[in-house]
Specification:
The chain is α/β, with parallel strands linked by helices and 430 residues long. The chain folds into two domains: 281 residues, Rossmann fold; 121 residues, no CATH class. The protein is 42% helix and 14% strand. The strands form two sheets. The chain has an eight-stranded mixed sheet with strand order 1-9-10-6-5-2-3-4. Strands 7-8 form a two-stranded antiparallel sheet. The structure holds S-adenosylmethionine.
Amino acid sequence: MEEQFTLFPIDTEFEAPKDRTASDKMAFVSFRELVPEITDTGYLTHAIVSYPAKFIPQVVRYAINTYTKEEDWIIDPFAGSGTVGVEAYLCKRNAVLLDLNLLLNHIMPLKVHRGKERLRKELMLKLLDGMQENGKHCFIPAWSNVQYWYAPEILELLSQYWGYIYSIEQDVYSAIIKTALLKVSKRFSNTEHRTPKLARSKRKLAAIETLLSENWKDQLIEIVYNHSLKTLGNINDFVMQTQHHQNQVEFQGGIDSSYVAVPRECDALITSPPYLQAQEYIRSTKMDLYWLGHTDEEIKELSRLEIPYRKADRVIQTETLDKVRDKLTRKDLHNRLDSYFCHTINALENAMNQLKPNAATCIFVGNPRIDGIEVELWRILTEYFSERCFLFEKVYEDRIKTRQLFGVRKNKNPDGMKSEFLLILRKANV
Ligand SMILES: C[S@@+](CC[C@H](N)C(=O)[O-])C[C@H]1O[C@@H](n2cnc3c(N)ncnc32)[C@H](O)[C@@H]1O
């Protein structure tokens, strides 16, 4: 029989654990301090593309160092922008990354560039010069609303640049330029570029008006050159650090982790599930997805599958979750809660079923509130998985601010959480 850990009683305060076993299994930490070797959350290739609610790499690095060994396979069923993939490769681990968002497929070949040679700046400059001189090509995104989001002359220039990029060889250099074009395609659009969701505002329209009366073309191309060269430098630094690494990072964007066939058995899971409220990843990145060649239909289909905006197909019950449900009076929030736990747990369970015996699962979650009621996610997950061959090992509490939500909204948290938790469960050795 495996040792069964008892969970702390629901009202136990972290600060005052009653017994030693409990105190060993809870820790107040600062992941930034635990991993001092990472001083910049956007180091190497982590910041090539903006993504909402990214992990800070320190959390991932700590989990990798503590719960895995070299050559292990790590799975992340909510991979987002692929932070786990970058950290895994840097630490000589392999990774399987799954996410509903198609952006993952575009980002990963750059973030984990497995080439062993430094990329050449002069080749990049040649392509950028070609892009500026060439007016022959045109690419308009398959987006019914595109005109609403751009001034006509800006849309025309962007379409030329994107058209040129799609006309040349699709390799790492053109992929780098695409990341720069994504940046300007948002910056020079009518949407507020500092907030994730698309939102036209008077302020932004006035800013575009002003830009159009200035040397906007020069400003735009300068950003494209600078961003492309910076990304090339970041990738070269990554290549230099990983020259002798032979690991693999497999990725599948555009899939529903709840039902996808997990491609292989893994040694550990490291992930951060979606937020309970207020975050729509597909909607936040849809401008990027259109420019990257995806269509209205594809994007609508993905939005329908996003957690927690789809119907639950079963009701998850645990002691703590039932208490939250009992207190919740609003029907719409009731449904959201059920949807969230049903699909988040389906996706986690789908990946956790493919873990080897004794594998660690490291799940990074907050304590969100719904209608003012605190939802202790780590405790609910522990209660659920303790009945399904997983043993509670430890929970780390990190007093915020461990995530960067989006651009300047650093560390603001839509769920209003004060702490985040890294929950460690261990698969039973059966
Ligand atoms: C908190 S974010 C993960 C961010 C990631 N840790 C990073 O560092 O970039 C949660 C992710 O869950 C994804 N997601 C939402 N519903 C999903 C589903 N049904 N299947 C797979 N992924 C889903 C979202 O697209 C989002 O990228």
